[in-house]
Amino acid sequence: MLIDLRSDTVTQPSAEMRTAMAQADVGDDVYGDDPTVNALQAEAARLSGKAAALFLPTGTQANLVALLSHCQRGEEYIVGQHAHNYKYEAGGAAVLGSIQPQPIEADPDGTLPLDKVAAAIKPDDIHFAKTRLLSLENTIGGKVLPLEYLQRAWQFTREHKLALHVDGARIFNAAVALDVPLKTLAQYCDTFTICLSKGLGAPVGSLLCGSEEFIQRANRWRKMTGGGMRQAGILAAAGLYALEHNVARLKEDHDNAKWLEQQLSNIGLEIVEPGAQTNVLYVRQSPELAAKLGPWMREQGVLISSGPVTRLLTHINVSRQDLQKVVILWQAFLQQHA
Ligand SMILES: *Cc1c(COP(=O)(O)O)cnc(C)c1O
Q1: pLDDT single digits (tens) 108-120
Q2: Residue 108, burial from CB neighbour count under 10 angstroms (0-12, 13-18, 19+)
């Protein structure tokens, strides 16, 4: 078995999850007829305290559909310079929605400073795009946005008449790290996404949560962007299983990340911004060593995206024992290349 620390997207559905998938009742979800999709959407709404939720194939599409539902052509969203829905989604909102991103630099803790957000809001003037939306990401680079910040951002967007969207691909990691229910985080945004296919261990799927009216609009955009699936209950069953069984255990991944960080630091590696809050950590190494480490680890059955800054993620398919092995191998590599 390979030990794969490249991402938490690599998780494999367990035997129990596969059984749930195989046994799912299904129907045509474009007609709203899939009982398992409906159950998943209802469960996401219940857990988040939002009125409604929509099941989508990917987190990228969930963010795109959210942006298309919030902003019209010629409008803009304010977003972090390194946010997934600015930098890593192929410019979808601009390409497909004629929606302009207004990126700003985040603070080191991952928050977007509200004075900078305020300065980026355009006055109502024919020269400017209309600022509609603030988009945050939680967790971002493994960091949890402080609750107090979420509260202030929410207040801020009410005062400035902006909508607030959260890319919550890893929002359950944030909730578990803060030891609060999802609702506590969801109350401070209009809409947010959840990835089922990362730490939660489902093979496919994301959710977009919001008001009834918003989700109805989002459903049209989902159809237009080709995300209306048919007997999708097979996939939704995995998501339902994940929400029931794989949320609380994220703490294990967080503990493993902290443990790994300590061990790698002990063998002399430089941790970028030590103090892993969730399941992500970053290691800095020389470009020469980084180029050798990746192929060397692969030969030993360990997959990492080795680079000058290497991002490592813990997840449901990596045990403490696996991590122990990685530390021993890494130490051997450093000794061989000293
Ligand atoms: C993974 C991720 C997404 C969406 O990814 P998909 O691969 O399209 O599901 C969106 N936002 C963040 C922050 C992510 O980490």
Answers
A1: 999 999 999 999 9
A2: exposed
Asked if 289 contacts 337 with a C-beta cutoff of 8 angstroms, the reply is: yes
Between the CA of 127 and the centroid of ligand 1 the distance, in Å, is 33
Average pLDDT, the chain: 98
Residue 314 · residue 257 · CB < 8 Å: yes
Q: Which pair of tokens denotes residue 227?
A: 């995300």
Q: 8 in ligand 1 pocket by Cβ < 6 Å?
A: no
Identity (one letter) of the amino acid at 76?
Answer: E
What average pLDDT does the segment 109-137 reach? 98
Q: Is 137 in the pocket of ligand 1 (CB under 6 A)?
A: yes
**List of domains in the chain:** 9-245 (3.40.640.10), 249-336 (3.90.1150.10)
Q: How far apart are CA 172 and CA 254, in angstroms?
A: 12
d(CA 276, CA 312) in angstroms, rounded, equals 11
Q: What is the mean pLDDT of residues 79-93?
A: 98
